[in-house]
Amino acid sequence: MILSYASAGTLSSNDCFITVEHAEQLEITIESIVLDAFGDQIEQVIRGVLKQLKIKKLKVLVQDKGALDYTIKARLITALHRLEKKA
Amino acid sequence: MKRSLLFIPANSPAMLQNADIFGADAIIFDLEDAIHPLEKDAARDLLTCYLERFALPDMELIVRINDRQTPYYIKDVERAVQLPIHTIMLPKAREEDILELSERLTALEKKRKRLAPLMIIPIIERAISLFEIEKIVAHARVSGLLLGGEDLTSDLEVERTKQGLEILFARQMVIYAAKAYRKEAIDTPFTDVGDHVGLVEDATYAKSLGMTAKSCIHPIQIDAINEVFSPSEKQITFAKRVLEAEKEAQEKGLGVFSVDGKMVDKPIIERAKQVLKRVKP
Amino acid sequence: MNMIKNSLGRLVPDDLTPFQGADQIIKKNKRILVDEVIVGGGNKPVETDMTTLFDKLNIQDGMTLSFHHHLRNGDGVLNMVLAEIKKRKLKNLTLAPSAIFPVHEPMVSLIKNGAITNIITNYINGPVALAIELGYLKGMLIMDTHGGRSRAIESGELNIDVAFIATPACDRYGHGNGIEGPSQCGTLGYAIPDLMYAKQKVLITDHLVDRVKKIDLDGRYVHMICHVPSIGDSQGIQSGTTKPTRDPIQLRIAKNTAQLIHELGYIKKGFRFQTGAGGTSLAVAEDIKHIMKDKKIMGAFASGGITNFLVKMHEEGLFEKLYDVQCFDLEAIKSYGRNKNHIMMSASEYGNPYAKPIVNDLDVVVLGATEIDLEFNVNVTTDSFGHIIGGSGGHADTAYGAKLTVITTNLMKSRLSMIKEHVTTITTPGETVDVLVTERGIAINPRRQDLIDKLKHSKLPIMPIEDLLHIAYDFTGIPKPTTRDGRIIGYVRYRDGSIIDSLYQIKGV
Question: A57: burial class by Cβ within 10 Å (0-12, 13-18, 19+)?
Fold first, then answer.
């Protein structure tokens, strides 16, 4: 089995680093400096994008340094495109 | 009639989020020099999501795409057409590059049913472009010219200095071409961010030659640039009188009117409105 | 521990006086003054090592030991005393340093082993703060203001057994100052209450001379002197100031702050001003300087912690006097040594609510915040996660005294709004705070209708604080509210001795 993953973003303040990997189910892990306050919301953003793109199987790791929703969305989209290119 | 243009790296969330508070008249979202080759895609996506989410009223929104010789150019243009921006800034612009870009835009705008056509600001940063400058500026999509001093002095193989003698010819060509076609002449950035006095001198000098605006790479320079390039008292007074005369003429039911013995037509009224918009508080 | 709600709705230990309003207690109560402890004139005994010193002072378990923080992160004295405490395996001590810095890391092991059980201080950051917030201190952390600490000492509420007073230069009569010697630090304002009222006073010095050039510490209060090779590191002592910020957001905030102060008409002849030593404060001072120079205005005084920037303004004729409770850098130290209108003030003269303090004469003070809430209550003690990151220092004192109190802060830091519905910890009550300036807008406390009226036609972006909060939430989203459920590890004591908030243990890192 070919292990394929891709990532996008940075660990700078206000940004996030998102890594995506092919998987057998949907698995979302979030590490954030504002986990208590915004952990749920970050997960909503991730799920929203995946739903729109009709992706049901994926492993996602979000390492967040206080990114706003639009940044999370963008980094996920870029990571997914990069993952696609690797296939 | 913008006075200041601020370059912001499109891949930096921290900078994008604060684009609106620095007081710049225009923002140049940079996909070119500020972005690492491996991050061009990330920058495009981040800019797209940012502009989807945030409106920036009262500012001209510009994207500096990668030049035509790069592998990123086509994707940049395709994305730009989908963004709520006004203008594309094209690096290392030559006449044929402008023609190509314009054609590409026309096709994409039609395909995507984009209502407002994108304007182009070519960056004059190659010696050869100075010999094609009239054809470049005359193009219908071109709204103004930006002088790219750093790359130009690279092309000339000379040192870039604060006095700027080495770019004087290019500065003047940009100004003459822009003025000949009544378009904007935008000066190159002053890169020594710590030298406030030098910045004001450079901006004042550029204005005296005929530049109508100046670009910059650090927000701390914006207030000074806005101050230098704001309309003069004379211009402000004239603009106020134009609008007063327009009001009077409308009240009297007159279609045509004059100020100081000269007939005032629509471009002059528009110009007057722009001038008053840019008056410092 | 049983808790009771104070007038700001905060839970505080019920065996202490709860906060009732910034004025209430001061207006109702008379000043309490215990007797000064005066030793008299003549030569003082000179020891040369900590061990003999401790023997002579008869330091016992359970005592209260005090220190000042004029040597800041270059301090060597507190650590010398800690080493001796460790050696003697003393227990249950109360330490009352006026501030604690990262250099005081050796305190951590003494907290963990119970040598130190209570700490009373005005400002704390670094490893000691971390150890306390994780719950290692077996007693309480009490956080005072600079003015409040002097009130506590003079009233006997803070009863000091031994004051270890780091003194850059002293003579055999026990007279001392901070402007001579290799560890010079400038004024010694925070040492004065300890000097006057502690049961025993020791000057610890590395520069013993025949006669000091200036007497800032009066030898008549001094029991003995301890002469050691070095009391601290001059680099750490003298680098308390930063430069004016270059951050474009902070600069925008600074510019609007200066503009606001100007529009309200405060910048005029006789102007009385205080601000901090951080980057944004200095940028504000810079903008105010331009306005003053432009309009040829001479202010009456600048006060507080003095920086080279304020020294320059004084020497350029923009402020007639400098009232100095601590020097932040070498230029300030030198200025205090040579300028006759650069005047030292004790912590009491600075901020003691019962002493007609200088803070009450202030026109304008510009302060920072880690958080501010819709009632304009300000937090400078903890961050939004409950970590102890500082403390009032002079914050609550100056906010009370100044005619105009301006708070400057970014609206958001890494997805967290600095404006909250309720701050994590209240340091300074909202009734003493007038204006908030952020990069996206300015809010005026509704209690100040006079300011709102004055700024009716201003072009500054003024809006209700609720609107600013909504702008922040629009960016960040609405955060899930956090609960503070750790055990009480201490409390924030307002300048009048009442308890304005409690401090809670945080979850382990």
Answer: exposed
Could you tell me the two tokens for B271?
Answer: 């110009």
Distance CA B232, CA B235 (A): 5
- pLDDT tens-digit profile of C277-329? 889 999 999 999 999 999 999 999 999 999 999 999 999 999 999 999 999 99
Q: Do C415 and A34 touch (CB under 8 A)?
A: yes
Residue C313 half-sphere exposure toward CB, CA atoms < 13 A: 32
Cα–Cα distance for residue pair C20/C497, rounded to 1 Å: 11
- C interface with B, Cβ–Cβ < 8 A, is 246, 248-249, 251-252, 255, 439-440, 459, 475
Q: Which of A74, A60, A58, A77 is closest to A15 using CA atoms?
A: A74
∠ CA(B34), CA(B40), CA(B43), 5° rounding? 75
Matching residue, tokens 């750093």: B150
Instruction: Assign B5 to helix, strand or coil.
Output: strand
Residue A39 is part of a domain; what is its CATH number? 3.30.230.10
Cβ neighbour number for residue B14 with a 10 Å cutoff: 16
Least Cα separation, residue A87 to chain C (angstroms)? 35
How far does Cα C357 stand from its chain's mean position? 15
* Per-residue tokens: B22: 């620095």
Instruction: Determine the Cα–Cα distance for residues C457 and C420; give it in Å rounded to an integer.
Output: 28
Q: Chain C residue with minimal CA distance to B17?
A: C475
Give the predicted TM-score (pTM) of the model. Answer: 0.92
Please name the residue ranges forming H helices in chain A: 35-52, 69-86
- Best interface-test mutation with A: which of B49, B53, B54, B83 has the largest number of A CBs within 10 A? B49
Q: What is the pLDDT of residues C104-163, one digit of tens each?
A: 999 999 999 999 999 999 999 999 999 999 999 999 999 999 999 999 999 999 999 999
Determine the Cα–Cα distance for residues C109 and C182; give it in Å rounded to an integer: 30
What's the rounded Cα separation, in Å, for the pair C81 and C107? 10
List the structure tokens of A18.
């998102």
The total of structural domains in chain A comes to 1
- Per residue in C323-333, is it b (16+ CB within 10 Å) or e — as a string? bbbbbbbbbbb
- Domain range for A67 is 5-86
- Say yes or no: A34 contacts chain C, CB-CB below 8 A: yes
